[in-house]
Design goal:
Layout: H1 2-19, E1 23-25, E2 37-39, H2 41-60, E3 65-68, H3 77-82, H4 84-87, E4 89-94, E5 101-103, E6 124-127, E7 131-133, E8 143-145, H5 151-156, H6 158-165, E9 171-180, E10 195-205, H7 210-227, E11 235-239, E12 251-259, E13 262-273, H8 275-284, E14 290-292, E15 297-299, E16 302-309, H9 310-321, E17 322-328, E18 334-340, E19 351-355, H10 361-374, E20 380-382, H11 388-398, E21 402-406, E22 421-426, E23 432-436, H12 440-449
Parallel strand pairs: 3-9, 19-20, 19-21
Antiparallel strand pairs: 1-2, 4-5, 4-6, 7-8, 9-10, 10-16, 11-12, 12-13, 13-16, 14-15, 17-18, 21-22, 22-23
The structure holds glycyl-adenosine-5'-phosphate.
Glycyl-adenosine-5'-phosphate (GAP) is lined by residues 149, 151, 181, 183, 192-193, 196, 198, 200, 265-268, 305, 307-309, 311-312.
């Protein structure tokens, strides 16, 4: 029963994402392409807000983290050193009759379309990295890969960044960017995609300080999710058991979120020892050592890696924000209001400006003035289509926290005391207050930033 209700909820969220321009199927007019998604106007703003919040909190407001912006295609040896060529694989089996291909642990329980049961091959390794060729010749010497994670680019640039960043261990290098995985089974809307964005921090520490910094980053990252509006009650941590850890890792915690399709990972926070830097030292022949001026010691730093997915966070925010309420509409009838209760910090549009009527030039002129006043300060949207009630519903579904309406009172037609005032309507309470135009920017700023 719960399953059914929850899958119904997911269908509603997917429909809203299309209806309000959050997420569209990639190449929809050609029938779509599995595992790829495009973000529409509201989704692009939402994603940007997530990335800005992360960059601001993990990089700009700290003194011990710097950022980089590296390439998607790197020297292919990077992926030999990292172990991705050898082991970034899923075991796959094929049906010899119908040529279907599945993950060995996810075989279908249906019959073979060619008749009888499927006739499976032995399991074979399937590498999840997308391959391409660099330059005009397509042979083995030109093979390159689209990065399956952003992390390796950070390790590869460790010495260059260290030489310019005026940082001492412990310090971090952060990056936001696209990653690509040829996932066998993309699913749950954008949750498992083939093209996605990661926000990764490699925080370099002295050997032995791993546990302390790992604990620190798990706490920091959990707190961060609450600052962007994910409710604590839907967040949890999964602690890897010793036998589940990679051979080089000393600890790993996944930050989990309760999606309508189950509790799933948003971010992994791993203590990876010196594995990555040591591997790149070995494969490149270049030193990855760090010299500590104070203790005069040389060592390869250990790393703690909080690694999050922008698209999964966007999906978690969409799921957490979605709410349906029964309200009494303007005509006195009960109706369902769909409202996206995003934290204002993360909402795609902060304020929408409406002229009460679109065919009254004086109203339009005044509303344009108000729009121009707000636009430099907040992501602002202009809307003059349909009646005011419909515009509120549209903005509620987009999660816009505040709507400003310019009406005849604003023009002074209902008395001089109301001239140059507007209504400010709150998304969550639906209450409207009369505000002086001159007070709008400080008031909304206060509501937004506290
Ligand atoms: N450098 C470590 C690393 O890449 P990961 O657990 O494979 O670790 C980190 O990926 C995060 O990237 C995940 O927690 C998730 O948020 C996101 N991610 C991974 N694969 C994804 C996919 N196929 N679709 C969307 N997001 C994905």
């Amino acid at each position: 029963m719960v399953e059914k209700r929850q899958s119904g909820l997911m269908d509603k969220i997917v429909a809203l994402c299309k209806r309000r321009g959050f997420i569209f199927q990639s190449s929809e007019i050609y029938g779509g392409i599995n595992g790829f998604w495009d973000y529409g106007p509201a989704g692009a703003e939402l994603k940007r807000n997530i990335k800005d919040a992360w960059w601001n909190d993990v990089v700009r407001s700290r003194t011990d983290v710097v950022g980089i912006d590296g390439t998607i295609i790197t020297h292919p040896r990077v992926w030999e050193a990292s172990g991705h060529i050898e082991s970034f694989t899923d075991p796959m089996v094929d049906c010899k009759k119908c040529k279907g291909r599945w993950r060995a642990d996810q075989l279908p329980d249906t019959k073979c379309p060619e008749g009888g049961p499927h006739d499976y091959t032995e399991a074979r390794k399937f590498n999840l990295m997308f391959k391409t060729n660099v330059g005009p010749v397509e042979d083995t010497s030109s093979v390159a890969y689209l990065r399956p994670e952003t992390a390796q680019v950070i390790f590869v640039q460790f010495q260059n960044v260290l030489s310019v960043a005026r940082q001492k261990v412990p310090f971090g290098i952060a990056q936001i960017g696209k990653a690509f995985r040829n996932e066998i089974n993309p699913r749950n809307f954008t949750f498992r995609s083939r093209e996605f964005e990661q926000m990764e921090l490699e925080f370099f520490v002295k050997p032995g300080a791993d546990a302390q910094w790992h604990e620190y980053w798990v706490k920091e990252r959990l707190k961060w999710y609450e600052t962007i509006g994910l409710p604590a009650a839907k967040l949890s941590c999964y602690n890897y058991k010793k036998e589940e850890l990679a051979h080089y890792a000393s600890a790993c915690v996944d930050v989990m979120f309760e999606f309508p399709f189950g509790v799933q990972e948003l971010e992994g926070i791993a203590a990876r020892g010196d594995f990555d830097l040591s591997q790149h030292q070995k494969f490149s022949g270049k030193s990855m050592e760090y010299f500590d001026d104070e203790t005069k010691e040389k060592f390869i730093p250990h790393v703690v890696e909080p690694s999050a997915g922008v698209d999964r966070i966007a999906l978690a925010l969409l799921c957490a924000a979605y709410a349906e309420e029964t309200i009494t509409g303007e005509n006195g009838k009960t109706e369902t209001r769909v409202v996206m209760r995003f934290a204002p910090r993360i909402a795609p549009v902060k304020v929408a400006v409406f002229p009460l009527l679109r065919n009254k030039p004086l109203l339009i002129e005044k509303a344009k003035e108000v729009f121009k006043l707000l636009q430099p300060h907040f992501t602002t949207e202009w809307d003059d289509r349909g009646n005011i009630g419909k515009r509120y519903r549209y903005q509620d579904e987009q999660g816009t926290p505040w709507c400003v309406t310019v009406d005849f009172e604003t023009l002074g037609e209902k008395g001089p005391e109301l001239k140059d005032t507007v209504t400010l309507r709150d998304r969550d309470t639906m209450k409207q207050e009369r505000i002086k135009i001159a007070d709008l920017v400080p008031l909304i700023s206060h509501k937004l930033h506290g």
